[in-house]
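agent> fetching stored inputs for the magnesium ion docking request
agent> found them:
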Amino acid sequence: MQTIYWNLHADADSDNKAEVLQAAGRLLRQGEVVAFPTETVYGLGADGLNGAAVAKIFAAKGRPADNPLILHIARKEDILPLTSGLTANARALMEAFWPGPLTLIVDKSQLIPDEVSAGLATVGVRMPSHPVAAGLIAATGRPIAAPSANISGKPSPTDAQAVWDDMQGKIAGIIDGGSCGIGVESTVVDTTAAVPMILRPGGITREMLEAVLGAVEVDPALGGQGDFKPKAPGMKYRHYAPQAAMYLFEGEAAMQIPAVAAKAAAQGIRTGVLCSEKIAAQLPQAENMLVSAWGQDTQALAEKLYSLLRGFDKQQAELIVAEGVGEDGLGLAVMNRLRKAAGYQIVTVSDGRLCAKSGTLLPEFMLK
Ligand code: AMP
Ligand code: MG
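agent> prediction call returned; pasting tokens
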């Protein structure tokens, strides 16, 4: 299949923009798949009320059939036909955070194809704030089912080039709207429970939700250890993963990244270092060392996280050592993605020595 590439990013001409959205909306109504930017990551869209169209998304991504999709709408009231009823908590969250990076899990209506909800009794709904996403949904005139526009398991795309790398030839079109602002996916909140629960941390923080709802729980399975099964089916898969073996240095362990990276590089291992400017300043110049510094704060890390991980793949890194951040605010989402990207290979410090959490064996160059 030939994939149409529309560049709305380079071209500020608004007439052209309306035309592109109409053309893409037509393809979506015909049951085709089109990728588009949102404020979180790029989405892979199809008509959310057409099961056969939605099945094409699963095929293009190689997504497991048991992992449900989120429906994207252009107006708040468009949620009403999609649900058998909203709780007071769901209404409060819509008022506070829509349009924006918040997905509400609600009881589904008869309209929802099984392909979207993967057989669950609930459906995820979100109203994005990105003008291209909002314009495309309005032009299509249907809810758009859209997971992240990556091949399943790979880091999500935050620019159109990353979508092109994964999807060219497999889908009808890609709308290039530039880089996504937030960089991590939406927060997924189950609003059907008595106390709403965060199933996936994301762009709307726990603190922001608590300010509206009072109490919020976090799915205990998100820690990755223990026998809990995550309530969002997608959270159980290794995800956001680069090709290299990745280790996440949490807390004080981060101070030892320069020494560890230097040793690995000296052994001829192509070593990617994902860290703050502070740690980057302590890294020696070395052959085999690929440094990606994100800047000062967690927001900057969230914005660049996936493109830096994809960059290591392109540079054929064999090892990635990454610095963790605090879990307040956006840090909860960033640490969730980093831990998953690392396959839970987490490095901490005990008695001044590096050690691994839960069963991970550390390579020799990390041990003194
Ligand atoms: P993505 O589409 O890649 O952004 O991923 C959507 C996430 O939301 C996945 O982790 C899904 O498992 C989760 N999700 C979607 N619908 C539901 C639902 N009805 N109940 C629980 N989790 C859901
Ligand atoms: Mg995804």
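agent> quick read of the result: The two ends are 54 Å apart (CA to CA).
agent> awaiting further instructions
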